[in-house]
Amino acid sequence: MIHNEENNDEIGNNHIATSTHNPIRQDAFDISDEEKITRIKKDVENILLTLGMDLTDDSLKGTPNRVAKMFVKEIFGGLNPDKKPSASTFDNKYKYGEMLVEKNIVVYSTCEHHLLPIYGRAHIAYISNGTVVGLSKMNRIVEFYAKRPQVQERLTIQIVKELQEVLNTQDVACVIDAKHMCVNSRGIKDIESSTVTSEFGGKFKEEKIKREFLDYIKLDTRF
């Protein structure tokens, strides 16, 4: 048991992902959001009481309910498949055959190892295979997969795979540059460092195309 706990800490402290899929139980949606909020509220109350906080104070009275609603409705809302954005596609009638880049998409996510914020920017590109997608849909896809307990590598892969399916092409790329509060505010407490992850599909694996994309987003990191 001690060995298992040490192993789990090693994985978490080093921010290692164990799967490209979020580890969600099959019964995750057997209860309603309202029931989840009720249960989480009680758990948050217990945490605060255990820490010695006085929940009769006006400032803290509503905290358990606020946190519970935030978990279910906001920062972990992307766990619910019903909230997956519909990504309408259109024929590429104007025959645009060059790279399309959507850069500086804001990313707000939560590290699944310490439940602390991850925040930064995502940069996405694709080359049309006869189909295009609305620009805002790319932002919504990033938001959907970010709103769950995450690992940055997994998030990057999920964004690319989703767009590959939506656009029916392998020619999709994503780079995320983000800060992790579990690194910046605890542990090593390095407030300057950020993490850069990438996933390149199809033509973006070719050095010329990859370099063109990285030049567009002005990222000098070599992949």
Task: Furnish the topology, listing elements before pairings.
Elements: H1 2-13, H2 33-50, H3 63-75, E1 89-91, E2 99-111, E3 117-127, E4 131-133, H4 135-146, E5 149-150, H5 152-167, E6 172-180, H6 181-184, E7 195-200, H7 207-216
Parallel strand pairs: 2-5
Antiparallel strand pairs: 1-4, 2-3, 3-6, 6-7
Helix pairs in contact: 2-3, 4-5
Could you state the order of secondary-structure elements as H and E? HHHEEEEHEHEHEH
Q: What is the count of DSSP helices, taking H or I runs of 4+ residues?
A: 7
Structure summary, number of beta strands? 7
As a percent range, the share of helical residues equals 25-40%
Low-confidence stretches: none
Strand content is: 15-25%
What number is the mean pLDDT?
90
End-to-end gap = 39 Å
Instruction: Classify the secondary structure makeup into a structural class.
Output: alpha+beta
Principal-axes shape call: globular
Profile the largest sheet.
Answer: 5 strands, mixed
Going across the major beta sheet, what is the strand order? 5-2-3-6-7
Question: What is the C-alpha radius of gyration, as a whole number of Å?
Answer: 20 Å
